[in-house]
Design a protein that fits this description.
The chain is an all-alpha fold. It is built from 3 helices and no strands.
Length: 124
């Protein structure tokens, strides 16, 4: 069975530091992936609020954005389905926030750690 290629490939500890141009491309790729992740999560929230609470589209976007941003809902929820959806979406949003933050900072942290490792090898 063939293994799937990793989504983000980093250089190994024995390889040289990635050139700046390629590093900027890596940052752009991570930013794009994180942005798609956030907007996909926002779309889930908008659809959920629209169909479980019969909210207008604009109110659905507002509530989903506020939950995803960690602020909390704006409108009061009237249906049991809407309350269940909102609680599950809030938990989902908390995890997505952490994952997106990790995706955004991973290339910078990896580069810093890789540089520190290369500096340590030069000293030895």
């Amino acid at each position: 069975m063939k293994r799937a290629a990793p989504l983000f490939k980093y250089e190994r500890h024995n390889q040289p530091l990635l050139p700046k141009r390629q590093f900027l491309f890596r940052l752009l790729r991570h930013f794009g992936f994180g942005t798609v992740l956030i907007f996909g999560s926002l779309a889930i929230g908008v659809l959920g609020y629209h169909f479980t609470e019969n909210m207008p589209w604009l109110d659905s976007v507002l509530n989903a954005s506020m939950i995803l941003g960690g602020m909390g809902p704006v409108n009061t929820l009237a249906t049991a389905a809407g309350k269940v959806f909102a609680s599950l979406y809030a938990l989902f949003s908390g995890v997505i926030f952490l994952v997106a933050a990790g995706v955004f900072i991973a290339p910078v942290v990896h580069r810093w750690l890789h540089k520190m490792h290369l500096d340590q090898d030069e000293e030895a």
